[in-house]
Amino acid sequence: MTLNFNENRYNEMIYRKCGRSGIHLPLISLGLWHNFGDVDDFENAKSMIFKSFDLGITHFDLANNYGPSPGSAERNFGKILKEDLYNHRDELIISTKVGYLMWDGPYGEWGSRKHMIASLDQSLKRLQLDYVDVFYHHRPDPDTPLEETMMTLDHIVRQGKALYVGLSNYDHIQTEKAVKILNELGTPILIHQPKYNMFTRWIESDLLSVLEDKGIGCISFSPLAQGMLTDKYINGIPADSRAANKHGFLQPEAITKSAVAKIKKLNKVAQERDQTLAQLALVWNLRNKGMTSVLIGARSVRQIEENINSINNLEISEEELKTIDEILSE
Ligand code: NDP
């Protein structure tokens, strides 16, 4: 099918340079961890991809295990891409990852050369692609020499199966070691993908400065704390929420009284800015100059539209930041 997308989409979105690389990413990127698997509505998944692209999102993030079932998000995305977006392939940055459990036996997860190469080959088949733009090691492997994992990433780039490499969930010490090996091999790392939001701020103390120093981009995952940093849980757990979904990763126990008290106060700060809490949470995340993009998840086109509107008011004052810090430290 030939689709007509908004011709002005690249003027309406804002793109930030990814570290010191030649790549620019949209301030908002879309992740396919939830709502794109076999258990989900395919037509809704398709609408969300089309709407994102129409609004200037050029970056879609996957992993071998996204679903459920594991692999089905890649399969569904591959189908959408092939049937409706193939003419736009060169306008897209598509990432996938390796590291979490995919098959039985000693080679089904982590960071060995054996696992990583087999997993990427499987991902490419599901995605119906010859290469991905970014291939991440999804989590550090305590049992495989870092040299083996990094040499495999380098090898994959040289084979042309990935254009760039990324690391996810590596702390700053692991990152520095990995960067050194990759630089020596001649395949510099493009981007790091850590969890970062108002409730999880570990990267502020050291990772962000390491990434800036080395010229590596950063894309934060779960910038809305899986939906907690929105107005959705203020009056309990609604049926159409990740916390109520049996396939959802957000445990209802995480929505404590103290978290809800903070969410209510943060919601007021957002309202005073004429934004929703979701929008404020994204603006707050992007206040870091080294944050190339925020990687949102979504269950509907409406959520994507709301979240993208955050880029229309990116200014955040020192006073607002102070108020947010005070609320978060209560
Ligand atoms: P978010 O923190 O953005 O949470 C997304 C969820 O929040 C949505 O699915 C929706 O859930 C809810 N939501 C989104 N917008 C709104 C809104 N405007 N109003 C109300 N609720 C809203 O991100 P995710 O946790 O989904 O992570 C994003 C991506 O990051 C993933 O898809 C994946 O690509 C990546 N990721 C990477 C990891 C890694 O280890 N590298 C780990 C986890 C994620 P609901 O169903 O409740 O409506």
From TrEMBL:
Keywords in alphabetical order: NADP, Oxidoreductase
Alphabetical list of Pfam families matching this protein: Aldo_ket_red
GO biological process: methylglyoxal catabolic process
Signal peptide span: none
Molecular-function GO terms, alphabetical: oxidoreductase activity
Domain NADP-dependent oxidoreductase: start-end pairs: 28-328
Residues forming coiled coils: none
UniProt key word Oxidoreductase: yes
Family listed: Belongs to the shaker potassium channel beta subunit family.
PANTHER family, sorted: HYPERKINETIC, ISOFORM M, L-GLYCERALDEHYDE 3-PHOSPHATE REDUCTASE
Name of protein: L-glyceraldehyde 3-phosphate reductase
Organism: hydrothermal vent metagenome
